[in-house]
Specification:
Blueprint (H helix, E strand, L loop, with lengths): L7 E5 L5 H8 L3 E6 L3 H11 L20 E4 L23 H12 L3 E6 L10 H12 L2 E8 L12 E8 L20 H4 L11 H17 L8 E3 L16 H4 L16 H6 L3 H4 L9 H13 L1 H9 L10 E5 L11 E4 L4 E4 L17 E2 L4 E2 L2 H7 L12 H10 L3 H16 L2
Parallel strand pairs: 1-2, 1-3, 3-4, 8-10
Antiparallel strand pairs: 4-6, 5-6, 7-8, 9-10, 11-12
Helix pairs in contact: 1-14
This protein binds S-adenosylmethionine.
């Protein structure tokens, strides 16, 4: 056992340093970091006073100082749903975990902590997870893991990630309690908003679009909104949700998007041009949209004259602007009492108390506070990751949101690190 002051960790795939912040708060000292991105390396130096090594694959592992814990938020893109699901087959980043194993095998730290999307547990029929457990077992480690979201530790962000702790076999360590934390006070998103600091205004077109959807909700006075989508192209549509086997002559008797007649279509191409975008590829509506299609058509059946008129004024710049995905309160049909996210699948309305997961792949999905006509700010995003104590942020908003979306939640890390310290490392 060591004394409090002697605990050391290394930070691989360091990014902004979510692991660094968490372990630092739990009393550990960082003795080495590694990060391939030049800009993130500069920031790491400014924020944490360590210049990381660049590419892990070129690292001479003997030069790494002695340490108790390896932290590694290995790149998740090959494993996330948003990525291409190549998993361990990915020739480059899918195998970067091998470098972590190489370092662990040489230095034999007490613990290795990994973080990634929960998908790694099941991807490729579980074969990546099997690979991981086998490889760690070969070098003498067992794994314990738990899927945890910041919302469970008092931070208002839904962001499920798997935290894995590897520990040396035969070390009489019972790690089953490493993920047991003291209950944290529940915090609403309202508590982390800071209106004093700059934030990006919502574009006028989107402001108008939200007003227009709200007008529909006000005018229809829906008593309750189910967790379904209002799919505007279905207003007036009658086509069968699966028309793969239909002859062109039969298809002509139906109505396409917004009730447009298909009677005069001479070819399938003519038909498909008049159909909602989500039917064009497979000539059918995907299963997950069936409920929403039925719901939208039933609303249309009761309000056809109004909706025909309303549809004419709806902004149609993007297909996704024509779908309102309701994940908000069922009995509060007011967009402005919610959060909004402009997603590829539609305009998503979310409960106001908890932000959706910050994601790195696209800055267009930054959550919107509709009653303030603005996006959440960089500082607010940092608070959602428990990284608001950083002195230096990336140079642009886009880069900040990308790095925040890539980062590990430092609060969860701090809680795990404190458990490691108290339960297993400090005498
Ligand atoms: C999922 S992010 C981890 C973020 C980090 N845990 C944090 O809290 O910000 C993965 C990081 O690995 C870095 N990376 C990717 N390939 C690398 C390589 N070959 N060597 C070192 N770093 C790499 C990326 O630039 C990215 O910052």
């Amino acid at each position: 056992m060591k004394t409090y002051k002697q605990l050391k960790f290394i930070d691989l795939f360091a990014g902004l340093g979510g692991f660094h912040v968490g372990f630092d708060k739990a009393g550990f000292e960082c003795v080495f970091a590694c990060e391939i991105d030049d800009h993130l390396r500069d920031l790491y130096k400014q924020n944490h006073n360590i210049t990381p090594h660049d590419d892990i694959r070129t690292l001479d592992i003997e030069t790494i100082p002695e340490h108790d814990v390896i932290c590694a938020g290995f790149p998740c893109q090959p494993f996330s749903l948003a990525g291409k699901k190549k998993g361990a087959k990915c020739p480059e980043s899918g195998r970067l975990i091998d470098d972590v194993i190489r370092i662990a095998n040489h230095h034999k730290p007490k613990f290795i902590i990994l973080e990634n999307v929960p998908n790694i547990l099941t991807i490729a029929e579980g074969s990546f997870w099997e690979y991981l457990t086998e490889k760690f077992s070969e070098i003498g480690y067992n794994l314990e893991y738990k899927v945890i979201s910041p919302v469970e530790v008092g931070i208002p962000q839904n962001r499920k990630r798997v935290f894995i702790v590897a520990y040396q076999k035969g070390s009489d360590v019972d790690l089953s309690t490493v993920f047991n934390f003291m209950p944290q006070e529940e915090v609403s998103l309202e508590n982390i908003l800071n209106r004093e600091l700059p934030s990006k205004a919502l574009e006028d077109k989107k402001v108008d679009l939200l007003k227009y959807w709200q007008k529909l909700l006000d005018d229809l006075k829906l008593p309750e909104i189910p967790a379904l989508s209002l799919v505007a192209p279905e207003f007036g549509a009658t086509y069968p949700i699966d028309f793969t086997g239909l002859a062109l002559s039969e298809m002509k008797s139906y109505k396409g998007a917004y009730g447009v007649s298909l009677t005069n279509c001479d070819t399938w191409q003519d038909v498909l041009e008049r159909m909602p975008s989500y039917t064009r590829k497979n000539k059918r509506v995907a299963n997950w949209l069936h409920g929403s299609i039925q719901y939208s058509r039933s609303i249309y059946a009761q309000n056809s004259a109004y909706l025909d008129q309303w549809s004419k004024g709806l902004g149609k710049d993007f297909n996704s602007w024509q779908i309102l995905e309701w994940r908000g309160q069922r009995n509060v049909a007011d967009i402005y009492q919610h959060l909004v996210q402009f997603r590829a699948s539609g305009i998503r309305i979310l409960k106001r108390e908890i932000a959706p997961s910050l994601i790195s792949m696209t800055p267009t999905q930054i959550p919107v506070i509709p009653n303030e006509n603005r996006y959440i700010s960089e500082f607010e995003a940092a608070r959602l990751q428990f990284l608001d104590g950083l002195k230096a942020f990336p140079e642009t908003t886009t880069k900040t949101f990308k790095a925040m979306g890539n980062a590990v939640n430092a609060k969860i890390v701090e809680l795990i690190a404190s458990n490691l310290r108290e339960k297993f490392l400090v005498s």
